[in-house]
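Sequence in, structure out. Go.
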Amino acid sequence: MISIEEYHRDFISTTSDEAAFNDETEDVQYLENVTSILEQYDVCPRATPCFFERRGSQKSIISIHGYSDSTDDGGLSDNTLSIFYCDYTNKHEIETINKKRYNELVEKCLGFVTDSVNGYIEKHVDVSDPGYALAQNIRMNFEEYDRIKIFIVTDKIPTTKFKELREESILNKKTITRLIDFSLFYSQHVSNKTHEELVINISNYGIDGIPCIEATENSLQTPCMSYMGVIPGYLLAIFYKDYGSILLESNVRSFLTAKTGVNKGIKKTIQSNPEMFFAYNNGVALTATDVIVDKTNNIITQITNLQIVNGGQTTVSLFKELKNGDPSNLNKIFVPMKLTVVNSTNSVEIIHNISQFANTQNAVKESDLDSNSDFQKAMEAASRRVRVLGTRELGRRFWYYERTRGQYIQESTKGTDAQNNLFKKEYSKERFMDKIEFAKYRCMYQQQPHIVSKGGQTCYSIFTSQIAEDWDKNKDHYNDEYFKETACIAILYKKVYASINTKRCPWFGGSFRSQIAYYTLPKFFYMLEQRNVALNIREIWDTQSVDESIISQMMVIGKVFLDQLKEVGNNGGNPTQWCKKEECWKSFKAVKIEFNDNVLKHTITATESEKEKQEAAIEQREIEGDLAISNLALFNDWRKVKQLMMRNDYSIEDQNIIQDVINYLNDPIHNRITPKRAIRALEIRKNIVD
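Output:
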């Protein structure tokens, strides 16, 4: 495994290169890179860049570099304001950060929040300043926040005496501060471990503990311990109030954000019949890495690293009653609980499986839950198969699709130096997409900028839900050309984002860079659609670049959109929240914008585009058929499959298909089998044997 020193040097170099390409400051680029990765590990949300530094109302310096606001997150109701400060050295040798420095930076962030709420920033800062809109948003929504989190992100590592977690209260809001240092980033991203633990002492919540009984035998051979118990409804609600969605295992969070609202049945029981909640509700499934159990009284008194892997909807519903309903109802509610303590070396896999199995038992599609859906596998396979055109000197080049988090870093560091260097040439970080970025590119192409603006996790959840509904009917559509198309949208987005800077665009004042890019691409696609043409994707793929006429058109679009956002702000609205609403997209879509006819040289007709997609789907079916026929020989249990089919009431037609497979494998020269029947045979075998 790559050492922290080597990884630090590589990451600093990559950050410098990306900052230059994006015309971004290196500290902001570092902040974006780190938080976008750690978002996948549920360590912190992805930061929206927002550089602000001024002298505040108390005459001390207040400063931030980014933020995340979850008050509009698709129904999850986490209601957390996250503020980021980036302490970046840009040095190849790793330095240390001490507690004094950490506290100084925390105070700068807390000062920004305070001066946002009291209106000081709005009174003393121009409306075009990047911090103005954020300060306005914080002031207007402060009552909605349940907690504030301050993240100090740095390329340093803490001194040995550093104790990082700090909890306090600011303006009567629970405030948690956290250091995202390079050792934490390295341990999480490279080795998939994190060194901070969340310890919950039950006695802090007014009760001695949670009643429970052991449900497994405690032995060295047992990878986990399980407990059955009953957790008070108010306690579950307060846990969520204090810690928010960090308690929700990522699979559950993805599922919840795709929901349209709180489950009506749960809500009705809470409000109308709370005494029957235990009888009506399936309960919650929890995991932890450690617990302290008072065996005399059969109660759990302390839980470490609590995660809710099933029952997120129940938890959120109870929390909403605590916040907006009649909290006294929660005193009458008790929730069935299954708690599994996982402290083995394969804890990540076990927790993932518990989440997957617990949720699939409740009719949540597996494709909604994890990275192992057929769609995710198809995109990963395409990325390893579809080669970028290039000269012999460049060697083989591909786009890398990261289906599971941390996959790229593991593959790029597992071999010898020569092998790792070859891998990085073939799969350059410039040609990289993770599954959340993939979803954002597709939603932009599908003209859904308001969904992209809601944040990566919500966008991913909505997109995968759309795929799950469409997969069985149109899976041939999700082929190599579909992957190449998405890679081309990535090329276009990155070029547009990099071009939105004060050097090229005098109209850009430093605010709303991401939102401008999110809306510029869909508007461009809509303008092409109105002219009955489509972007020539093959041209972009073959050149791995975008013509300047297209970028110039995008900048015209971007300026118009920024003018609209400024108007929203001047009228007392909040531009960032406005971008998350479909009305924003409908309004901007209707705006007339001058079109550069030179762009048409890089388009094809809509008919040609549709024909290309149909041909790609046909080609995909042929590829899958040929592959299915070749895969038949991988198994020698076809006679067993036929026997099992007869016991499970399979149709005569399906039984004949399996007999055709047996005949084909016995004599492939004289007994042919069609691709369609081969595909069906593999489906039958998977259902029966696997």
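Check: The chain is about 50% helix and 15% strand. Residues 4-196 form one domain.
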